[in-house]
Amino acid sequence: MKVKCIFLFFVCLTYTSFSFASDLDGVSELIKNGKETEAIARINRYIQKYPSDPELKFLRGATLDHFGKTREAKEDFLILSNKYPKDPIIKNNLGVLYAKLGEYRKARFLFESALKLKTDYQEAKNNLSLIQKQDRVYLTSK
């Protein structure tokens, strides 16, 4: 099952505060070139410099997931979700990570939560639909 997320790095970089977004342009290039260690190290340096910036945590979580470190990415998104409980984008992306880890009940709850916060959030609707389809397939196979 493929659950969609908004882990597009140009979106993450655009989403990031403009005060240092240009400095982070190199992160996108590192990610594209598969330089995991360097990309994460650069993001971590910015997190040390701007510890209260949620976009940097978002970017780090997205980067970790991109490089297959979904469990670590989940931890970043859990922190963000607790700190920003009314952000549907964070809820949707956390749901995607739970789905990738096979934790479909948690994923469903998060997609539903995202839709309660923003009823027209198409990405969360699509992801919830995929989870519901999987549930139907599972139930009919029993």
Automatic annotation (TrEMBL):
<keyword id="KW-0732">Signal</keyword>
<dbReference type="InterPro" id="IPR011990">
    <property type="entry name" value="TPR-like_helical_dom_sf"/>
</dbReference>
<feature type="repeat" description="TPR">
    <location>
        <begin position="88"/>
        <end position="121"/>
    </location>
</feature>
<dbReference type="Pfam" id="PF07719">
    <property type="entry name" value="TPR_2"/>
</dbReference>
<dbReference type="InterPro" id="IPR013105">
    <property type="entry name" value="TPR_2"/>
</dbReference>
<keyword id="KW-0802">TPR repeat</keyword>
<keyword id="KW-0677">Repeat</keyword>
<feature type="signal peptide">
    <location>
        <begin position="1"/>
        <end position="21"/>
    </location>
</feature>
<dbReference type="InterPro" id="IPR019734">
    <property type="entry name" value="TPR_rpt"/>
</dbReference>
<protein>
    <submittedName>
        <fullName>Tetratricopeptide repeat protein</fullName>
    </submittedName>
</protein>
